[in-house]
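INFO batch 0412 | record 1 of 1 | parsing
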Amino acid sequence: MIKLIEEIRKNFIILKQEFYKNYAGSSHIQEFLPLMSSDSFPISKTHLQKLIEFAESNPIYYNSFDMKINDISCRIYEGDINDYWINSLKHDSSYQPFYPTWILSAYLLALSSKLLGYEKLIDIGSGDGRIAYCGSITDLETYSIEIDESLVELQNKIQTNVSLNFRPMCSDAMEFDFNSIHLSRPEFFIGGLPQQGEMLAKNIISKIQKTNLAKESGFVLAGTYSKKQFSGNSSLGGWSEIVNDFKLTVQQILDVPTSWTFDQKTGTPYYFTKFQ
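INFO prediction complete | emitting tokens
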């Protein structure tokens, strides 16, 4: 199944590049979802419908239309996140302005957590909640933790129009009591690229390291290939210091499309790690 995820991921990157070459719109953000299962995207019809349900319940998208990309029937979603991006900068404890990964990417990330044996998914700095929502599609118990009130309000609007509960919570993850949600085999998705998200990652990982959850917990870190993001060692997508300091081992790397890599040949590498 992990090989199947990798095959979907490769086809997704290829399709993204073709979409970028042919996209003629001018929206702030844009992405697509395949409309049906195929050899390139062997995803169940039910799961595809749930992904579309999230997109069509999400107010950040103001337009959608269908088109074929490399003979794959897709639905294109155009959106604007300017107001949410600005609002997300106002918190002292906010380490990354809101800029979403793509919905299909969030699904592949959540599915990878499921296949690695995790039972619960905690998305920290969750934006509009898409990774947590996709975790619910894969039958993980999910929690969506976001410090920005306007983004949590956005999540609650989405929550009222979808059939899955991804548990939006407005909280500063640095102060959050994880014992309150009775975790078992949790995977923590920690928002923020290197430099911006370093302090948040250190806080969460060290907090979990001191509990009896340490041996069964995983931490997913969003890396980057951009040299501009690094202040030091650029290996492991900029996370080598964190990985080395906490003696983490890398279980998997998944390079998937995100809004901020739309015009690039690669995507964003997500590092699935755990304590050695």
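INFO post-check: Strands lie at 29-34, 61-69, 72-79, 120-124, 141-146, 168-170, 186-190, 218-222, 248-256, 268-275.
INFO record closed
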